[in-house]
Amino acid sequence: MPSQFPPLNIPPVPSRDSRFYGSSGSPQLNFWDRFRGKGRPHVGWTESAIAIARSSWLNVLLVIVPVAWALHFVNGISHIVQFIFCFIAIIPLCRLLDYGGENLALYCGKDFGDVIVVSANNAVEATLAICLLSTCQLRLLQATIVGTVLLRLVFVPSMHFISGGARIAAQDLHPHLADLNQTLLTTGVLSLLLPAAFFSALNSVDAGGESPNAVSDSVRGDLLKVSRGLAVLLLAVYLCSRIFLHNPPGSENGLHEHKDAPAEFKERAARMAEEDPEVNPWACLILLFLVVALMAPTAEFLVESIQPMSERHQIPQEFFGLILLPFVSYSAECILSLVYHVQLHLEHYLGTPLYPPKTLAEARSIELSIQFLIFWMPLLVLLAWVTNKPLSLLFDLFEVVLLLSVGFLVNYVTADAKTNWIEGVQLLALYAMMALTAWFYPGQPAVQTMLSCGSIQSFLAAEGVPPNSTFTNISFEGFHATLDDSQINNFTDRLRDLNKLYSLLKQIETGS
């Protein structure tokens, strides 16, 4: 018997992924609606506070933050004790930064959310850099910038490639993202090569045989103008790269819908659209602001506690800035990663099977280094301009060469959008080579002089250097120095006297 009622055509309920991206991947909601959480369950302030408090057991270490601050202002406390407490205090702050950034990214989508997470992960190093700028430790600031880029670009990816490729032949990178990162990295490194070439050309001997005086206020003024222009251009390049990456021309060209995008990358984007945040967006912003406010003095106290220890143990200044200081700032995140892996293997030992190996390589640290190189570094140059600090893009030539070599190897490793554990070993070996070389490198005194706060002529006069002097680098059996004209003349006179004395002693020996 036929039914008296016609069948009901009930349309299927669209998934949250289709509500956010649509069938073709184009955004259905504008940014403001997505940020306010339209289409997601409402999260109140009480629920947000409880979720933040329960986000990690490491939050119990937050009580160390005021203790670390108090120890800094107490006289007679060992620098080692101050360092230990500041180091422990940064660990929960780093975890809260990650938690707040990840929850805020759920409201902003995969594309813009990645920018937020990357910026949150760079907060420690950026805060440390601003602290060094405020105290006018410009040479140490430059070394720390280069060291941070090297750490994020070489050491961290090497660890991920080794651990991630231990159970799989090769892991994938997003080819579209890898290609863009290669060009951005090259652009950032070459922007440092130009001021170094400019300064080296002025220091070279001209056709007349005379060496121009490149260490002067006038040359530094020209370099500052060049650096500020380059900084504006780098910021424009970074901004355009974000627009191109997250809103490319044409249809179906987004990262999560690119035809060559790895399957696991697409799954992560879909999972992010379906996952419900635990904290409301305004609470995320307040959390990030408070954590950065707490981290700024803690990072400054950490640097102040480690500097006396480096001087006491005679750690070279170049090694301190290039290797030690960036590694200390990253070590809190390293501890978090170590705790996660220990917990994972402990669960496996107790009977829980390991997760299947990931096919998508973990290369977010490369994006961190690129952001620090072409966003934070030029931003620091412009901030120094506003605060009347002579920070330029004239870096030590040794550091520029390190960046060039690292950029070449990283671009070569990621060129095929695949990684494996042996490539991670190669990156780790390169980082060890750079650390070994940095231990014995004395630095470039002329560049350090150009970064001195105040007048260069006043600085040279305080050092006993006559005005309008030219400088020569001297290197002999482990002795390195940059000498002015009068010092070179005195040095030559002493050598001449020693030669005469040697000849006289030789004659006496022959006569006897």
Kindly summarize this structure in a few lines.
With 512 residues, the protein is mainly α. The protein has helices spanning 16-21, 31-35, 45-53, 64-72, 79-121, 123-134, 138-164, 175-203, 217-246, 263-274, 281-312, 317-349, 364-386, 397-413, 421-440, 445-450, 456-462, 485-511; strands at residues 171-172, 418-419, 471-476, 479-484.
Would you write up a description of this structure?
It is a single chain. With 512 residues, this protein is mainly alpha-helical. It has three domains: 16-121 and 263-314, no CATH class; 151-203 and 214-262 and 341-447, no CATH class; 464-512, no CATH class. The chain is built from 18 helices and four strands. It has helices at residues 16-21, 31-35, 45-53, 64-72, 79-121, 123-134, 138-164, 175-203, 217-246, 263-274, 281-312, 317-349, 364-386, 397-413, 421-440, 445-450, 456-462, 485-511; strands spanning 171-172, 418-419, 471-476, 479-484. The strands form two sheets. Strands 1-2 form a two-stranded antiparallel sheet. Strand 3 and strand 4 form a beta hairpin. Helix 8 (175-203) packs across helix 13 (364-386) and helix 8 runs antiparallel to helix 14 (397-413). It is globular, with a radius of gyration of 28 Å. The N and C termini lie far apart (139 Å). Residues 1-5, 7-27, 206-212 and 475-480 have low confidence and may be disordered. Residues 1-14 have a biased composition (Pro residues). It is found in: Endomembrane system. The chain crosses the membrane at residues 57-74, 80-97, 140-163, 183-205, 226-245, 279-299, 368-386, 393-415, 421-441.
